[in-house]
Amino acid sequence: MPKRFISFSPTSQLPSEKKYIMPTFVTVPDPQINGTRVIIDTIGINEDLFYGSLTEAEQVFVWEKVLHRSMDEVFGMTQKRSLKRHFRFTFILNHVIDLKDIYSKADFVFRRFHVNAKSEEEYDSIHCTIVGYNIPKPVELGSFTRITATTSDFKVSANEILPWLALYGSVSTKFDYVKNSVGVRTDVIETEIRLMKHIPEYLPVAGKKIQIGYPGIPRMCIKCWGVDHLKRNCRAKKVEWIDHVAAMRATGAFSDPMFGSWIAILDQNKSH
Q: Sign of the C-alpha dihedral, residues 31, 168, 260, 264?
């Protein structure tokens, strides 16, 4: 029977004599990954030290159910042993995040059920602590930076993205699809640009919704498509994506061929 997770609780319920490392904040340039890295150690199980490991499903549970984040913002995960031999796992994000919400949960416990040799259900209390963050240094306008463009599939080519990026700076002619840790090509296109003005985080490129990433990119709310706030803090009326595309087209700053099949959808909606 697979392990099941039921809850998490603050570590104030644990024995007071246990002492743990509190998070440290580090700001460093990271040429490979555009987003924040959140580093978590598993240091206790029940009332003992923990030298085991967590499955990928358990790590995902921590991210989604304990820290209340979405796996959509996770570029990848890594794991290793800390100097104290604790199991350490890191979430590598595809953008820079506000750490205030996560910092409030820097020390936490979650419970997992399992079945023992007698076919009886038991649970363990796993104690975790966030031991550090790596926050990429925001890019300065006028400087070269590595950017990523995440597509829903491989049908959007670099040539279709290039006209959009060229409106915001001087773009390198070299585009690559990023490969994951086992060498498999992902749906992330990577290139360099001399950024002259900030790029919208989401672009309607050739009939696809493309997410752009680089250090310090102004975040967009996926509810109203405004900037500098996220959906959970949004008080504005919901704006459908296609209506946002129509508003972009209406500015006249983009030619119709750049939108691809979005134009047909817009014209069809207009006819109705």
A: positive
Write the pLDDT tens digit of every residue in 149-182.
Answer: 887 666 777 788 889 999 999 987 677 777 665 6
Helix axes 241-250, 262-271, angle to 10 degrees: 100
Give residue for tokens 């300065």.
Answer: 140
CB 31 within 8 A of CB 145: no
Nearest to 207 by CA among 241, 240, 177: 241
Residue 220: half-sphere exposure toward Cβ, Cα within 13 Å: 17
What DSSP assignment string belongs to 90-117? EEEESS----HHHHTTSEEEEEEEEE-T
Instruction: Tell me which range, 10-24, 149-163, 174-188, 234-248, is most confidently predicted by mean pLDDT.
Output: 234-248
Residue 169 · residue 195 · CB < 8 Å: yes
Residue 172 is encoded by which pair of tokens?
Answer: 């390198």
Which residues does residue 188 pair with via DSSP β-bridges, in sequence order? 150
Under DSSP, the state recorded for 143 is S
Rounded to 5°, angle at Cα 89 from 84 and 92: 135
Contact 218, 201 (CB under 8 A): yes
- Average pLDDT of span 56-80: 84
Q: Is residue 199 predicted with pLDDT exceeding 80?
A: yes
What is the rounded CA–CA span in Å between residue 7 and residue 5?
6
Tokens linked to 3: 């392990």
pTM: 0.55
**What amino acid is encoded at 271 in this protein?**
S
Contact 217, 136 (CB under 8 A): no
Residue with tokens 């967590």: 54
pLDDT of residue 28: 35
Q: Which run of H or of E encompasses 202? A: strand 202-205
